[in-house]
Design goal:
The protein has 139 residues and is mainly α. 62% of the residues lie in helices and 0% in strands. The protein contains six helices and no strands. Helix 1 runs antiparallel to helix 6 and helix 3 packs across helix 6. Bound molecules: heme C.
Length: 139
Amino acid sequence: MSFSFKIGFFSFLLLAVHLQHCNQTTHATKEEHIEVSVDSTNAITSVDTEAFEANSNVTRTVLITHCGSCHQSTLPTQKAGAIAVFDLDKNDAWHEDLLEEHLEGIGNRLLNKSDITEAQKEAIATFIEAKAKQLEHEP
Ligand code: HEC
């Protein structure tokens, strides 16, 4: 699977989240739209660190709720295989062991959940896209 295909996939996720969001009829709360450049030639410098950390934290919080039992190293229910993929107890460094092939699995497992807000889905999709670019540039 080529990288450009994957970026296409992640952009699609992001678009799907945007569309869902626009279709919502609930009253609008204050939103922050975080722009991520799709031009991968300049990816490292164009991905704003603060926005990346904010989206990373939202993703981690959602993961703790749904996946923490096995993916948190301080819990007795943790699984070594799960910790090797990502450890939610490593705080901001929780994603440092992730490989590109894990990102799609995280997206698929989180983005279809009904108890996640649209703002959270948008942050997760943006995080996944930014992390994919980071991995492409720093394998
Ligand atoms: C019951 C324990 C458990 C829970 C809960 C769990 N995982 Fe995992 N996960 C594992 C284990 C163990 C592995 C190591 C690979 C394997 O054995 O399948 C793993 C591997 C993974 C991988 C890498 C392999 C793959 O299948 O892509 C991803 C990505 C992943 N988990 C995401 C998640 C997400 C997202 C959630 C929450 C929605 C979650 N996991 C919840 C136990 C769990």
